[in-house]
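*** Backbone structure tokens ***
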Amino acid sequence: MRPAKKPVSIIAFPSNLGLIEPAPGREPGVKKLPEALKKYGFYDLINPQEEISLEPPPYTMNLDLVSNMRNTNAIATYAVGQSAVIREVVSRKNFALVLGGDCSILIGNSLALKQLGHYKLFFIDGHTDFMWPSLSSTHGVAGMDLAIATGHGHALLADIDGCMPYFKEEDTWCVGNREYHPDYVAAIENTAIHYHDLKSLRMSGVSSCVEAFLQSLNTESPDGFWVHLDVDVLDPLIMPAVDSPDPDGLTYAELNVMLESLLWHPLCTGMEITILDPDLDPEGKNIREFIDRVGTTIQQVLTRPKNR
């Protein structure tokens, strides 16, 4: 049995490079997420062994003509820096609790895990993020991160240091999408990714989906797995402070069922939290509720004994 508390490293990767401007001349506010979570008590609740932060390159709307994606070179540079941080933390057997930022931070985190060994991905998101520039109206990498992480996309981001793919398709679970347009979901449906949109997730049961993923760990023996949590997977009635607040979404109770089982597992290496935008929650109401409902679950699970 492991010690009662696995050391936690809170790592801030406050990049907004994967998003377009919400208004001309205004940066996306997701880069303020770590600061806001700290302000409202998340860091105190988790009580990490250490706090690490890596500043991203300056925000621009630059469209790279080679890759047809925005901020490609800056995101690639940042991904290499992220990778060094994650490798060092994971090598010390600390739990890596990463705070974004937008979803493009998945690229650097995924790169690190590929460099460390064989890891799986449990991707919880209100969108598939499985697109490439020809399918994207914005050309923002935050809408393409899962495709890039599984080897679909320009080599400038999908094959950093010759590591493509960072996650194999069959090692990847994409859970919670509620953008059902056939043209949007066709891309991911034509892969080996284990895809569970919100409707199918509720039909089969949240617990059943997670249990199937955890069972796969017993037969395939990976070195670990990573959890991606985009808070836009939540219903906008309870979490409106995101850039794409589509109707419907998970409840806090449903999300916590997933997180309790995933984070408790000994092979859970770390998780990232993305997209919550403090600029869209100036009084901190949604952030405080998120900390109370989800932060408390994270804290409780990470201090629970884990069986080998």
Summary: Strands lie at 8-12, 50-53, 63-64, 69-70, 95-99, 119-124, 172-175, 194-196, 224-230, 268-274. The two ends are 6 Å apart (CA to CA). The longest helix spans residues 72-91.
